[in-house]
């Protein structure tokens, strides 16, 4: 079998394996969908968002009246004696006394310096913050799934490269044994070929272990049974059209970290409004309907009852509180200032991260081209070396060197694609532009 036939056979072999197991292939789209449905941290973040949404009510902001029902029943058995003003006295053992009171009271704060409206707006901003935190959690987890997925693709490609070198090593061993049998090679050449084949098999076993562990890790991110077996696509497609200016514009609009800082500033401003509201009076309307009944075995009145409606209002105004109002307002203003500083800091960090990540991205794109050329050269070199080895014009050491160079070139090319993909993922995560 000539060299070109060998490579065609290898390609056909791996193509058949992929075709037979096509139904078991997990695409990156499927992986992201499963993660969005199953990932535990995403589920928790979704529930936290629902909590924030549930809290946005006018009742939670203090705009609605509060009605309270109450019942009080007191009973006693006592030995009692009474002496009246006219000198007469009465006494009774085991005297029973009881009183029953029940009713409904209503309280409604109708004015509190507009604090309740600021509180409602603050609850809405907290809901937005929860949405932003959910988005950030999803971005982080989807980026993890992408990184883990393409690491698995890389591991799979390296398995393919090692499978290829084992086939070549087996052919080399067979050639060495044939040459030894006809007296054209020494036993040493056969032993060297066997040792190199064993070394390749050890490397393949190690790679299979790494591949299996990478698969378990991806299953963990997908929150499913680590024993679930699957394959991934054998292709890494890197988006080479990213532009730094576009990414920075997207980051200003979509980066969840920056969004959270902007929302935190708005929350701080609303907190200042609530603090300033304490300078104004608080007016409460009160109303209620009560019923009371009492019975006494001793005394001027043996039984009494009453029922009726009561209503009114009360107003309070903080006249002096030891300058706490002034202190609270000053602290709230400092919180706003801190939130503005945090926005500026987040902007600077974001731009720095984007700039450095983009430079790494450009370098990795160039490395892909270089490693692709290196792999083509190494393959051509191996083909020529294999032909020469068959006719005995080069040493086994030269052949082994060419073989290892080819394997290393394939691994480096695979790694270059993977690293470039990680750079792309990092840039899109920073820009808040991950597709899921």
Automatic annotation (TrEMBL):
Any one annotated GO CC term: cell outer membrane
Keyword Transport annotated: yes
Keywords, in A-Z order: Cell outer membrane, Membrane, Signal, Transmembrane, Transmembrane beta strand, Transport
Signal peptide: 1-22
Subcellular location field: Cell outer membrane
The keyword Hydrolase belongs to this UniProt entry's keyword annotation: no
Superkingdom per UniProt: Bacteria
Annotated Pfam families: OEP
Listed name of the protein: Outer membrane protein TolC
Species for this entry: Flavobacterium saccharophilum
């Amino acid at each position: 079998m000539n060299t070109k036939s060998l490579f065609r056979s290898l390609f056909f072999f791996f193509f058949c394996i992929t075709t037979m197991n096509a139904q078991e292939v997990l695409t990156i789209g499927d992986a992201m969908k499963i993660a969005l449905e199953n990932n535990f941290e995403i589920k928790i973040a979704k529930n936290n968002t629902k909590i924030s949404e549930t809290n946005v009510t006018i009742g939670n902001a203090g705009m609605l009246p509060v009605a309270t029902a109450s019942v009080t029943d007191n009973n006693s058995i006592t030995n009692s004696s009474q002496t009246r003003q006219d000198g007469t006295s009465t006494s009774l053992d085991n005297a029973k006394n009881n009183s029953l009171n029940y009713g409904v009271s209503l309280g409604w704060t109708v004015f509190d310096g507009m604090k309740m409206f600021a509180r409602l707006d603050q609850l809405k901003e907290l809901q937005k913050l929860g949405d932003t935190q959910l988005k950030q959690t999803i971005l982080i987890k989807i980026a993890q799934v992408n990184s883990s997925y393409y690491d698995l693709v890389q591991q799979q490609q390296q398995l393919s490269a090692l499978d290829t070198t084992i086939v070549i090593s087996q052919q080399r061993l067979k050639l060495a044994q044939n040459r030894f049998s006809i007296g054209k090679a020494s036993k040493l050449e056969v032993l060297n070929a066997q040792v190199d084949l064993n070394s390749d098999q050890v490397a393949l076993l190690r790679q299979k272990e790494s591949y299996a562990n990478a698969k378990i890790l991806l299953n963990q991110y997908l929150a499913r049974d680590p024993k679930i077996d699957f394959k991934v696509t054998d292709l890494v497609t890197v988006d080479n059209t990213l532009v730094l200016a576009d990414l920075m514009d997207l980051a200003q609009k979509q980066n969840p970290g920056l969004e959270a800082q902007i929302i935190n500033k708005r929350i701080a401003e609303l907190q200042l409004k609530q603090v300033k509201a304490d300078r104004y009076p608080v007016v409460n309307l009160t109303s209620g309907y009560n019923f009371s009944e009492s019975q006494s075995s001793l005394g001027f009145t043996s039984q009494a009852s009453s029922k009726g409606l009561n209503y009114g209002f009360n107003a309070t105004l903080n006249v002096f509180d030891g300058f706490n109002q002034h202190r609270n307002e000053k602290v709230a203003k400092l919180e706003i200032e801190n939130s503005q500083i945090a926005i500026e800091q987040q902007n600077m960090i974001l731009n720095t991260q984007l700039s450095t990540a983009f430079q790494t991205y450009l370098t990795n794109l160039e490395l892909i081209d270089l490693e692709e050329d290196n792999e083509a050269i190494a393959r051509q070199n191996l083909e020529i070396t294999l032909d020469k080895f068959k006719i005995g014009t080069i040493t086994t050491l030269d052949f082994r060197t060419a073989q290892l160079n080819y394997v290393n070139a394939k691994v480096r090319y695979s790694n270059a694609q993977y690293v470039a993909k990680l750079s792309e993922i990092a840039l899109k995560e920073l820009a808040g532009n991950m597709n899921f």
